[in-house]
Every structure is written in C-alpha cells, then in structure tokens.
Amino acid sequence: MNGTLKRVAVACLAMFALLMINVNFLQAVRAEEYRTDARNTRNYFDRYAIERGRITAGGKVLAQSVETKDSDFKFVRKYTDGKLYAHVTGYFSPESESAIERSENALLDGSSADLLLRRSIDLFTGEPTRGASVDLTINPKAQKAAYDALRSSGKRGAVIALDPKTGAILAMVSLPTFDPAELSGTDKGTVFKRYDQLDADKSQPLLNRTISQTYPPGSTFKVVTMAAYLEADSSRGPQTNVEAPQRLPLPNTNISLPNYGGSACGSGQVTLVYALEKSCNTPFASMGMELGFEAMKEQTEKFGMGTPVSVPMAAAQSDFGKDYDKAALAMASIGQRDNRMTPLQMAMIAAGIANDGTVMKPYLVNKITDAKGDPIEEADPDELKTDAVSSETAAKLREMMVSVVSNGTANLAQVPGVQVAGKTGTAETATGAPPHAWFISFAPADDPKVALAVIVESGAANVGAEATGGHTAAPIAKAVLEAVLNK
Fold this sequence. Notes:
Blueprint: H1 2-29, H2 31-36, H3 41-46, E1 55-57, E2 60-67, E3 75-79, H4 82-89, H5 99-103, H6 105-108, H7 116-125, E4 133-136, H8 140-152, E5 157-162, E6 169-175, H9 188-200, H10 222-232, E7 241-243, E8 247-249, E9 256-258, E10 269-271, H11 272-278, H12 281-291, H13 293-302, H14 326-332, H15 343-354, E11 359-360, E12 365-369, E13 375-378, E14 383-385, H16 391-407, E15 421-427, E16 436-443, E17 450-456, H17 467-472, H18 474-485
Parallel strand pairs: 1-4
Antiparallel strand pairs: 1-2, 2-3, 4-12, 5-6, 5-17, 7-10, 8-9, 11-14, 12-13, 15-16, 16-17
Helix pairs in contact: 8-18, 10-12, 10-13, 10-16, 11-16, 12-14
C-alpha cells in the first residue's frame, strides 16, 4: 500500500513539475510569440486602451490619441495634415507602426523604462498610464514650402533640409505620399486592404525617398570630387587651371566621355570655379582618375558614406561603387555608373561644407517629455565626422558653390539679399527615361542656417547644359531656403 502511494505521489510531483516548467516556458520563452500572434485579440484591443503621447513640431500637434465612446477602442490616433507629415510621423495600425510611431513606440505607448518613475507615480495616484510626447526638429514652414514646391512639379521626388551646425532635420518630404489616418483605423479589414493597395502602387507612396532610396547623384557629386582634389594639394584653389577637353577618351575603351549635350567647356583649359559653374564632365572625370579609387572612396566616407545613420529611422546605405577600372572611376566621379546616394547623404555633404568641413549627425527628435510635460530627454547634437575636409578646403568649396548660384547653372535658386551656395545635377537612369534633377544647397553662405538636397525623379527638362537640375530642383530649394530664413 505504501509503495502504491509513493508511486502516486511521485507521479503527482512529476506532473506538477512538468506543469510549472510548461508555465514558465510559455510565460518566459514564448510570451512574445503569443503576445504578437495575430489571433491574440487582447493584444489588439490593448493597443487602443492607452493614450499614446503626442508627436509635435514647432508648436504644432502632428499626431495625438483622441478618446472615443467605443467600449472596445478607448483611443484612436488622429493626424493633423497627415499627408504633409506622413513619412515623418508614420502610422499606427492595428498590428504595426512606421516612422516615428515605430521608432519611438515604447515612449509613445508609455512602456519605456525611461517612464518607470512616471508609471509608479500614476499607479500611486490612480491615474491611467499615458505615453510620452515626442517633439520633432521639423520646421513646419519649411516642411510646407518643400511639400508645396515639390508637388507643383507634378513629379515624384524628395526634399530634406538640415541645420548644418547641429544636424537637426528641418524638413523631410517624400512624394507621392499617403494619408496615415487610412492606415490607423481600428477595422483590420479596411486598414489591411488599404495598405495592400498602397504597397502595390507602382509610385511607391509608402517609400520615404529622403532616407530609404538611393539614386545616382549626377553632377551634385562633383563637389565631392572637387573636395578630394583640393584636399590632395592645398595650393589648389578656385582659380587653378585644369584641362577641360570637349571629349575625354576613357582608358581601355573605344568610347570617350562628352560634356553635357556634347558642348565645349570653355577653351579647353578652365579654372576650377568655371568647371563647377558650368558643371563640365571632362575635368571632373580626369580629377577622379588622377586621384584614384581609394582617395575618392575615402573622401565619400569622410562625408559620412558607409557610416550607419539613424534619424532615428535607419537610412539606406549610400555607395560610391566598386574599383572596376579607370573608365568606371571616371563615370563614378561625375555621379554616374554605380555611384548611389540617398538625398540625406547629399544633404549631409552640403551641410559638411557649410559647417567648415564638419558633418553633424542628422536627427529628427528634438525632445521627449512625459504626460505631465516634464523633460525626459533632449537632443544633444553630435559630430558624425570631423574634418570631412579642412576648413580651408570648405571655404574654397563654399566660394565656388556661391559662384554656381550667382554665375552658373543654379541662378533660379537665388534669394534676394542672401548669398546662396549650391550645385545642380542631372542623373541619367534607364535608357530613354528622362534624367533625375538634383540640387544641393546651403544659405546664407557666410553663416549657414540650412543645408538641403532636392531630387525630382525623371524631372530633368531639355533646357540647356546642366540647367536641368537648376531649372526643376533649384526653385524648390529656393522655396525652402526662404521659409527657413523667413524671406
């Protein structure tokens, strides 16, 4: 009898042990799997039970949670000027988020460890949990100016503007856009159907072209080639003469590189400032081949290429290309071949030149406050790369880029009473397709407050040598510059 009881007791203990192991396995190991399982309706309803924090910029509320009378969904997300800020705020859907709504989700929904003290106080006082508010660096006037100007072009494209001295992002516009409210409803069927429609759209409205898409930079990249050329010999300057043939034979090929439209570049020998003003291809291709692949690649890296950047959304990696041969290097040095840059990277290059050669780390979050308005975190501007170029080289580049706007291809970027620096670009894409139109800029040149990059996809018009970027993209930049400078 005792033996039977012992066996039953052992069996019971073993079952309890297995039960406890299984409970701990489910709660610890598989908890996240069950929490995120689409069949977990409690998680679905819990998403709408907490008042998420606001997303603001320049004193303007961009996103906030609004209380409803629905017993199942206590709060829903509302967006102000949703299409204007869609790629900045992102959306908050029944099962996912994007952009700031995703990257700052733990703060917005109140679950972050940074809010532990606030949650403890609320628990003691009996107040409901509320998320933190995220204030952004976006300048609403600059954002609106960029959006309106780019939209008036009727093309796809992107505009991103930075404060060159801090790295703060002042404008981030990508077109086409979408309405985040359509993806932030509580009806899964409606939301998912709309998401699938947007995702299948060939124009890619969900894509943030400012940070997630790379393009051939075209002639805007010539400022990088010029930077490397000046850094290689400090005696060189705007008035240094270089060879500028009408066509440049490419080594080990039977082809030659022409200037834009096959035109001549001066008399065949020009100053560096003239080469940049007129954006001649042949002298810059020669510079790149003379410098060599490693020197060119090193210069791009000094401007931040290859360094992972999060703003806090992760940016795509820009790439100068591979060391194939001199012919490929010549093309990469004028922004073609395998050379691919994000608009953010090109804006960082302009900002680095504006900031005496130092590239600041770009950022979008200005400060974070709890539900009571008490500060949790504030932006601390930091250098991404010191000495992308020397201050002397930056001054020479600045002088030449001012001349591009005053005397060259970017006269449509001129702002009355302000010295504007810039560089136009036309980037060839698929055969037969219109080129992309680029423009990078900063102003005022003597004390820069804003640096930016504009790309208009397939936006280049046949209006003369390198004036394509100057004709389409430069006026967009001018609108943003004026908004920031209050002109």
